[in-house]
Amino acid sequence: MKDLIIIGAGPAGLTAAIYGMRAGIDLIVLEKFSPGGQVINTYEVENYPGFADPVPGWDLVSAMENQARRLGAEFATAEVASVVKDEWDNAFTVTLADGGPLRAKTVIAASGASLRKIGVPGEDHFFGRGVSYCATCDGAFYKDRVTAVIGGGDTALEEAHFLTRFSSKVYLIHRRNEFRGMKILQERVLSSEKIVPVLESIPVSINGESKVESISVSNVRTGDKTTISVDGVFVFIGYTPNASYIPPTLLNKNGEVVVDMQMRTAVRGLFAAGDIRSESKRQIVMACADGATAALNAYEEIVG
């Protein structure tokens, strides 16, 4: 039996592993894909303390992973199907998707969140053929082409600006009459000659034959529909917590794990940290703080 199982190897999970190893906890980190989480798709991070110049997201989380490994943290590639507390010994059974169970005295859920789909005709059909959820991954395919970005938050503004490195024009489509992202990001986007804001509009379909050729949008105020010729569509409209393995009674209406200020859930010994938790601001530095908080409280739970 492990002292601690950490589910997810993004900034929250990696920081929890670092703090857990320094506390002498016998732990394992389970990650469905590769360590890093959403940050590995971020071209530049410019708001993480300690870096005067922007740092590539993959470099930042790679350093976190290397630090955890140097301290001796154990990693395993696995998808978690369920987490259940066993009343007979107050420990947890973590069941993996391949059927293999693991047991631990405490668990930290740090599996983050996935980008949300817009749910319009053509989105699934053209995935990988013009529809993407990662400008860093796919932006280079659209050199001298026209793209559209859906969303108005920080991520959408950052990715739209990143696409100007390649695209000849970027339509930035948002359902409100102004963007929601930070002021510095809004100023950067609105000052770009390549970015064309399309406000008070929502996508209604993504169109084409063998690949994306256009996107149809509807004005939320007038109802007027417009079709814009584009070669690619990038979607950034928010996140869905990766919490399918958590008991539904521990989730709020948004599917986030409800925690207190100490990252504790209503089940003693079960913690949640990072983008998966309630009231998360989805910032790297805050996810790291969550992971540290959860690990320190898990340690106190373990040692009694």
- End-to-end distance, in Å? 17 Å
Number of domains: 2
CATH architecture assignment name of the largest domain: 3-Layer(bba) Sandwich
Biggest beta sheet summary:
7 strands, mixed
Per CATH, the superfamily of the largest domain is FAD/NAD(P)-binding domain
CATH structural class of the largest domain: Alpha Beta
Low-confidence runs: none
Can you tell me the CATH topology of the largest domain? FAD/NAD(P)-binding domain
Q: Report the radius of gyration as a whole number of Å.
A: 21 Å
Oligomerization status of the protein chains: single chain
SS-derived structural category: alpha/beta
Order of helices and strands: EHEHEEEEEEHEHEHEEEEEEEH
Overall spatial form: elongated
The average pLDDT value, as a whole number, equals: 96
Put simply, the count of helices is 6
Could you characterize what this model shows?
It is a single chain. By secondary structure, the protein is α/β, with parallel strands linked by helices. It folds into two domains: 2-114 and 239-303, FAD/NAD(P)-binding domain (3-Layer(bba) Sandwich), CATH 3.50.50.60; 131-235, FAD/NAD(P)-binding domain. 22% of the residues lie in helices and 29% in strands. The protein has six helices and 17 strands. It has helices spanning 11-22, 57-70, 135-138, 154-163, 183-190, 284-303, and strands at 2-7, 27-31, 74-77, 80-86, 91-96, 101-109, 113-115, 131-132, 146-150, 169-173, 195-198, 201-208, 212-219, 225-229, 232-235, 239-241, 270-272. Strands 1, 2, 3, 4, 5, 6 and 17 form a seven-stranded mixed sheet that branches. A five-stranded parallel sheet has the order 8-15-9-10-11, covered by helices on one side. Helix 5 links the parallel strand 10 (169-173) and strand 11. The longest helix is centred in the C-terminal third of the chain and has 20 residues, at 284-303. The chain is elongated and about 60 Å long. It starts with a strand and ends with a helix. The relative contact order is 0.19.
